[in-house]
Amino acid sequence: MQIIKDYLRLRWTEEGGYHQVLVLAFPLILSTASWSVQHFVDRMFLTWFSTEAVAAAMPAGLLNFTLMSIFLGTAGYTSTFAAQYFGAGRFDRVGPAIWQGIYVSVFGWLVLVACIPLAGPIFKLAGHEPLIQANEVIYFQILALGAGPAIAASAMSGFFSGLSNPWPVVWVNLVATGVNVVFDYLMIFGKFGFPRWGMKGAAVATVLSAVASFIVYLILFARPAYNQRYRLLAGWRFDGPLFKRLLKFGFPNGAQFFLDVAGFTVFLFLIGRLGTVNLAATNIAFNINTLAFMPMIGVGIAVSVLVGQFLGQNRPDLAQRSTFRGFHLTLVYMSAVAALYVLVPDLFVAPFARNAHEKNFPQIQELTIVLLRFVAVYSVFDTMNIVFSSALRGAGDTRYVMFMIVAVSLLVLVIPSYIGLVVLGGSIYLGWTIASAYVIILGFSFLFRFLGGKWKSMRVIEEAAPHVLPPLPPETPGPEIG
Q1: Which of 26, 176, 213, 410 could potentially form a cystine with 153 if both were Cys, beta carbons 3.0 to 4.6 Å apart?
Q2: Are 262 and 38 within 8 A, CB to CB?
Q3: Range of the domain at 330
């Protein structure tokens, strides 16, 4: 018994152990959980508003997020640059790296705005019911118009998470969540003199929360201590070589983010062809999954940061240790949540049913409970997906992650879903079986890549210029000793 206690104590206290992972991950879990709360409340209110609204929210929101994701993934990769610069002790390079991510966000915002006129034709092509299409167009267009602050906030958060100081990110996300929930309630239902905008109100509330995040980050960035050590304001200038390095490593990260989300977006569009009940149940099941899934993302970010910092210190052994410790934690957590999905599914569906007035909601509820069993199975394997892909990204192995997302998304998710649901006319259960297989296969692909160890020699930062003191002139006497 004492041997077991000593073993666990060592695994808890060692560098890169459970304690170090949890200290960094806990505030990040709170931060990502706040995102889950935003999405959960948003979908819950829309369920209370109408079935068409909640059915439209997921496809429209995912399409917007799909287009944003390539810029979110690229700009947000500033956290890896900050982590490796910090680990290497090159603090003056942190601020300029963050600013290159902000410049990415400006370009991303322009691209999203340019896509606004395309919303109508895109959702018409999806073939959803007319009322759902109308809601989808409204939701997408408003979210696209407000995409800039959200992408910029992703780049700015990389400063704090990369330096293992995630608590400011927590407070910023809590502020954003509060703004989103309050304005959701006011503008979806038209409370206290606000217009009853329904879907439009949900979209505006989401944009306002992103703007709030951006403003709070700007206030935090103005602290003199940050500027003095990290050149957080002084490093605002465009840095061509650094920008290219961010694109070299960050763009594949953004591309894999984009392709992963795009695959599920196509999947949802295909599910939408099966009818409003199937689409609404799928949206609710995914939303419930997000509530449990996002805390795992917090652990993934922590693993990515620790891998970056340890590689900056040239300690791949500690990077590997922290990765496996993070995997153990997420596996235990998600296994417990998966058991709840199977044993007490009504606990998760009840908030949606509370004020749902549609006659067909009992049918939606029954189908959602069945879909949660699929979620319970694949979410356990999703722990490998999250943790090991995060470790690879923290090292800079972003191209492999991108290529695997492309291959597995096309060959396992998108093409089989189209053949099964459209060509063969399969049921929603066939679609969810395909989606589950996609998550499981992707998780194993990242595990095997990590075990291969190629990532241990990777770095995203440039080598530091050697500091060589010039030789003393011959006529100059050396310092006296003694």
Answers
A1: 213
A2: no
A3: 15-457
Residue 40 lies inside a defined structural domain of this protein: yes
Burial of 252 (0-12, 13-18, 19+ CB in 10 A): buried
Burial of 481 (C-beta count, 10 Å sphere; 0-12/13-18/19+): exposed
Q: Which of 56-70, 251-265, 391-405 has the highest mean pLDDT?
A: 391-405
Element at 230 (helix H, strand E): helix 224-230
How many domains does the chain contain in total?
1
Whether the pLDDT of residue 112 is over 50: the answer is: yes
Which residues touch 218 (CB under 8 Å, ≥6 apart)?
Answer: 156
Residues recorded for the chain:
482
One-letter amino acid for residue 7 of the chain: Y
- Are 114 and 144 in contact by the 8 Å Cβ rule? The answer is no
- What burial class does residue 17 get, using C-beta atoms within 10 Å of its C-beta: 0-12 exposed, 13-18 middle, 19+ buried? middle
457: helix, strand or coil: helix
Looking at residue 93, the DSSP 8-state letter turns out to be G
Residue with tokens 């038209």: 190
Is residue 393 included in any domain, yes or no?
yes
Count of C-beta atoms within a 10 Å radius of residue 381: 19
Q: Is residue 403 part of a domain?
A: yes
If pLDDT is split at 50, 70 and 90, which confidence band does 357 have?
low
Q: In terms of Cα–Cα distance, which of 81, 144, 82, 74 is closest to 102?
A: 74
- Asked if 170 contacts 185 with a C-beta cutoff of 8 angstroms, the reply is no
- Select from 94, 89, 84, 91 the least CA-distant residue to 459: 84
474 within a domain of the structure (yes/no): no
